[in-house]
């Protein structure tokens, strides 16, 4: 590669960023084989409508404009077949560049109406969703009925009855659950959308507009879910968890062991094609009280430069797929957009940046990435959820088809016009981080992975009783559906 091209990648990445898209690793490999790639890209972008550009721009799309021969692709001393093995990553859902939030009250009304309508559509497709009535219709009759509603306020009477406010956007009704009802043990959250099966009370004063609930049905997942083993991905996927670079507690020696291994001739290491980082690449600044006392690098941009240097030691054949977390420099309310372009430009071209959450497709394998801040919210209020086993929270999210099923807790929500925290598509893999635990489980055909961390326990974490399981790398072989864990601690 000519020396002048070393800075060319950053210039080309900016050209695509200015047009609200990014360049995939295989796209850069293709562009490296042409004369004056910047001029080629400028010409392509000049002839395209910005709204028609794919996200990301990959080699397949670029080939309609340029078609270098294999011999023209410079390898910088590496094997061309190795570089071409970097597979295309397609984004299916990402808030980046699509935010509509202004913070006005009307945004919240639009947001929750959108949540209700989308979850109502999912519930309507269920067998139990057939024959559901609008609340306004149900209130005019007595006897058996089914309604689809969002749960509002919840209280409990002295004799143990649970009282729910049920709304469908047009009307509302009081729901009552008898302690002997099958629905009584189904832990209900405010703001979740359910099918309530029961009976409209007789028109008596004490039961005015009351719906006695016998059972509750959630959007949930199909009984058999997806089957990861049927997907066509080649190679393995590694999940490396929250890095927290910049912290004095960052485990440098363990990371060095990982880098040595990923560059070794180990048969598993050589077969890894993707690495997933579900947020918190840096420790940030001002995230918790007196955090500066725990920092080795006190400048947030220097923290990112160090991460970029570290990730540059990962072989180019591997695509690194990242999203932000609560320690990264994006807005705190979720959904969060991808990292700013000036930060992205610090990294090698094999590092891809998406928002939090993001749904990506790798060779028909759908991976839902979410940092996982709401895990702690669910652990605080749900009796069956614990921080020690975060997959318990992930199951509750899948059951409700929403990543932040309760509004108003520790996880702030940006009231976007479209609720980007909904789980519309059933993923093959659902990965989170945040809790610093290594936890794996399969639920209705979906592989649940809460990845580890590269930060030892801090004093702040001790105070909050957070017990990390650091330096563990989860490795998924999707062809066999086998998961292994490699410990670098």
Q: State the helical fraction.
A: 10-25%
Give the N-terminus to C-terminus distance in angstroms: 38 Å
Strand tally, please?
A: 17
- The second-level CATH architecture of the largest domain is 4-Layer Sandwich
Low-confidence stretches: 1-6, 67-87
CA-based shape: globular
Give me the Rg, rounded: 25 Å
Largest sheet: 6 strands, mixed
Description:
The protein is α/β, with parallel strands linked by helices. It has three domains: 3-84; 127-217, Nucleic acid-binding proteins (OB fold (Dihydrolipoamide Acetyltransferase, E2P)); 228-487, 4-Layer Sandwich (Purple Acid Phosphatase, chain A, domain 2). Helices cover 23% and strands 21% of the residues. It has 14 helices and 17 strands. It has helices spanning 8-17, 25-31, 37-46, 59-62, 80-84, 105-124, 135-138, 252-262, 267-270, 300-311, 341-344, 374-381, 391-400, 459-463, and strands at 89-94, 143-156, 162-167, 172-177, 193-200, 210-217, 236-239, 272-277, 319-322, 351-353, 358-362, 365-369, 429-432, 439-443, 446-450, 472-477, 482-487. It has a six-stranded mixed beta sheet, with helices on one face. A six-stranded mixed beta sheet has the order 10-9-8-7-16-17. A five-stranded mixed barrel has the order 2-3-4-6-5. Helix 1 (8-17) packs parallel to helix 3. The longest helix is centred in the first third of the chain and has 20 residues, at 105-124.
